[in-house]
Specification:
The structure is a homodimer of 213-residue chains.
Chain A: H1 2-12, H2 19-39, H3 42-48, H4 53-59, H5 63-87, H6 93-110, H7 112-121, H8 127-154, H9 162-179, H10 188-200, H11 207-212
Helix pairs in contact in A: 1-2, 2-3, 2-5, 2-7, 3-4, 5-6, 5-7, 5-8, 6-8, 6-9, 6-10, 7-9, 8-9
């Protein structure tokens, strides 16, 4: 489990010049995951990172700052992954919705520790910091919304309630972070593909095919 | 929010003879929801319930006991709701899967505070208590599994990977507890019906209809 947490931090912060900062992020994420934000003490994080409590404050001004850094990087990582996948997908809007689901799901399985902490501890962030994180989240959701609306307009998607369907598509990916374990039977990208196939069933029959029948 | 929490406790423990016990469950759930299990102190729960810390121990031997009571009642409540709905549904296995999703989703929206605390804090329970809760959870999931297998056998359900589909159907309901707010635009049972309609898209085309085309 600790190795997973370290791998997730390394994936989110690929160019970390300072090893002590890295150790603190790993120890912080690990502690948030196990005992939650409110159960985490700066002292325990320092100890797990092999530093003095005072040394923590050289890198993070507070426990909140540590959580915020992880939450912001996590949300940006997810947004970047989805955006890159959509940029590379020139197919129909319907297909791009499936690409969103595949990428979003794969990301949540690959970054389950980060994603879980973000989901469970968002309310611990003060308003201004939470607002910044929520903006990134809204941008991600906005990409899905835009593709869905485009798909409804061009007839490739046919759903009763776009908001509910969008919510469900996001839930599939988000909830992966709760139950997914790397030790399980399925790799993150396989799960992403499976969920994209499921998502196809939520988008209704394309108008063209319906007209043909 | 406090009123929702009280309503959820009252729904889970309909015949509570002792009002102090009720106040402690409400205060405990509220605190778990806001600062998490590890951030909750028995002292704070006692204060919120208008009792002395010593009085807490008359009713619950520990903070763990309080969480356990809520977690067990929550899981049993969800299981009972689903079982009752399935008992009343004499239609096809496919329809019964949709009934499961509708009931499970509605329950998670109606009991969002309990469900969220259960999902987020399960790991705080010691092994023996967690095992008992997990047994109830497995029973619920077993009802869905059985209906899905029956539907696959009778041809009313056609899916590529029953395990992944079952996981996705459960995720839709579970994740409701994360985002659902009573103040939002949709009532619990409306959401349940919408999600059942979505779930229909995840179960493939019935064999009969496929043969006819």
């Amino acid at each position: 489990m600790n190795r997973d947490v370290a791998a997730e931090i390394d994936a989110l912060f690929p160019q970390m010049p300072d090893n002590r900062r890295r150790e603190l992020l790993i120890a912080g994420l690990r502690s948030f995951q196990v005992v939650g934000f409110h159960g985490t003490s700066t002292r325990a994080v320092a100890k797990a990172a092999g530093l003095s409590p005072a040394a923590v404050y050289v890198h993070f001004e507070s426990k909140v700052a540590l959580l915020y850094e992880i939450a912001l990087a996590g949300h940006r990582g997810s947004l970047d992954a989805v955006r890159a996948a959509l940029d590379a997908d020139r197919a129909s809007s319907r297909h791009r919705v499936l690409t969103f689901v595949e990428t979003f799901t794969t990301w949540h399985a690959s970054h389950a520790a980060v994603a879980r902490v973000i989901q469970y501890e968002m309310s611990a962030l003060p308003d201004d910091k939470r607002s910044r994180v929520v903006r990134v989240r809204r941008a991600t959701e906005g990409l899905l919304r835009a593709e869905m609306l485009a798909g409804i307009k061009d007839g490739s998607i046919s759903v009763d309630d776009p908001d509910t369907t969008r919510r469900a598509l996001l839930s599939l990916g988000v909830d992966v972070a709760r139950w997914y374990r790397r030790s399980g039977r399925i790799a993150p990208d396989d799960l992403g593909r499976q969920y994209a196939a499921l998502a196809d069933g939520l988008l209704g029959r394309p108008a063209a095919r319906r007209n043909a029948s």
